[in-house]
Amino acid sequence: MKYCPRCGEEKPVTTEHWCRNCQTKDGLHGYCKACKADIHKEYMKNKEVKERVLRKTIEWQKGIGKEKWRIIRKRCDTSQKKVAWRHARTKRAKDFAEKYVKTILQKEDEKK
């Protein structure tokens, strides 16, 4: 069972009652589907927001949005050299963090 803070109900943890969200630990949205739909309806009542959403939808349907996305993706350098540099940088950062944590733990042990 999962608790929805907006409606205050506990509902089963299934995609029937909850929208998926890959950014959370349990993989489900914080609000139930009914509350999320209500929030979206309130959001779309704003005329400017509605026009912007409709304009973007029409752009995507015409293919303009897809072309913009292709251009943005081309700007990102995904060459092997760049990817290797990112991996090495990440590894260095992890190693530094591990050393830092070890030194802090050692200092705490010395104090005791």
Summed over residues and divided by their number, the pLDDT gives a mean of 84
SSE order, as H and E?
A: EEEEHHHH
Into which percentage range does the β-strand content fall? Answer: 5-15%
N-to-C CA distance: 44 Å
Q: Please tell me what the overall shape is.
A: flat
Question: What Rg is obtained from the alpha carbons, in whole angstroms?
Answer: 23 Å
Structural class: mainly alpha
Tally of separate helices: 4
Number of domains: 2
Q: Number of DSSP strands?
A: 4
Percent of residues in helical segments? 55-70%
Question: Which strand order do you get reading across the main beta sheet?
Answer: 1-2
Low-confidence stretches: none
Main β-sheet: number of strands, strand sense, barrel status?
2 strands, antiparallel
